[in-house]
């Protein structure tokens, strides 16, 4: 057999080039699209059909169902998509990923794109060195496109020549003559190969090459494709491991969706294959196991892949809510676990009038403020926590809350910007400006909570233990800050209808400022008299100062509401 270790390395290198080209092309397109992909996912998923079409569109654009599903899982984790919305997008992503197979079948086997790969790179070279990022990203896309097809060309030429090495074909045939057992065996092979390679597109390319070269029959290749559809779900499930329960449910729904599809296709496997062969070859009993290059088999395999996913979506799209209930049952919310985040009032798009949309946005801001207070409560718990593992878990949860706070701010602000484009009264315009400021300041409160958690973490790492007096002072400052946030929420509840009372908020802010000044003066004296170390004093004052900043942000929210009411009253 004339196939050595260097030939095997060439094969692995060709696969690596294909994978790198696919990854580079996908990432470049995501950079070109920027926030528009996020906007599409958030805005077009208000119903089942919209979600499916969104998944098809985004996956067809970025050429990676894994990237789409990981993106969806991250949005569910941040509360920007509900579980039901995410399932629709994931269904669409399964259809969108079939575009890759068609591109490879048509361009990779019918056209010699590998021959123009180097000229394409030459075209992309000046773009890559442009200062404008958009041009640079398009240059990266062209390079990725060229590498993908150059890698595919090398894959086709570096696989062993079956004609010269018939023993290799006989090795495969030892496992292809078990009838339905071979179908199940190669389904497992496709699953494992996709898990290892972490790209269903790369595994699909390998399968297409094996089928076109006559290594395996169309039926065996189709079984591998079914396995690839199961294997590709692993990426999203890995991404969801660090997410909340909703993110895990979204990833699990992808797995169950594909597994169900594979099961019903296996039950109807031979009739289903007969339909595919009849469409491509005009004969439902056409024998595709003959050795030799057969590009029609690649079309048949691409058609099988597309028909499988389209039919699966057509069947299961009617049971999206049932799938959501099922994965919720499989992964129940644990007691005392992380909160399930979602935008409660504005996730389904604008209402019929801008005035009503403004009312919904105000409700969402109130939810946002309440969550931020919960985040501050976790900071207080972190300060008290002494168990190492519980401390680490709580700190990680605060980090997640901070990331969620950032993204929710953007979503609410974007929504308010859309509302501002509609017809609003003068009073509502003033209220909208105040709400934008409120959202920004509430996000700053979340930042302060995270800064407090980081300071507590540094204190914990440095093994610094505060004395009784210092501990009491820190807790007093925490208590005042918590009172300030609580009063802010009360004022916010009155914002829509009642008058805004800012007196109590100003009083709490004065108490915070006075306590901060007293503690700073006393801290300098205590360090001088060696009551505690300078390093302990730094951590102590960092906590005190950050609480004072937090109080300022809280007051800014209250003042924004009061200013809005005042200007409306003047009119």
Description:
The protein is mainly alpha-helical and 571 residues long. The chain has two domains: 5-330, no CATH class; 354-570, Up-down Bundle (Methane Monooxygenase Hydroxylase, Chain G, domain 1). It is built from 23 helices and no strands. The chain has helices at 5-33, 35-43, 48-62, 65-78, 83-96, 98-109, 117-128, 133-158, 166-173, 180-197, 200-212, 218-231, 233-240, 245-267, 269-281, 295-316, 320-330, 354-384, 388-420, 426-461, 468-494, 503-528, 534-570. Helix 11 crosses helix 16 (295-316) and helix 21 (468-494) packs parallel to helix 23 (534-570). It is elongated and about 90 Å long. The chain starts with a helix and ends with a helix. Mean pLDDT is 79; it is low at 166-170.
Work out the count of structural domains: 2
Over the alpha carbons, how many angstroms does the gyration radius reach? Answer: 30 Å
Please mark out the parts with pLDDT under 50 across 5 or more consecutive residues, or reply none: 166-170
H/I helix tally: 23
- End-to-end separation in angstroms reads 91 Å
* Principal-axis shape: elongated
Strand content: under 5%
Class derived from helix and strand content: mainly alpha
Give the total of beta strands.
0
Order of helices and strands: HHHHHHHHHHHHHHHHHHHHHHH
Assembly context of the chains: single chain
Q: Mean pLDDT, nearest integer?
A: 79
Fraction of residues in H or I helices:
over 70%
- Describe the main β-sheet briefly: none
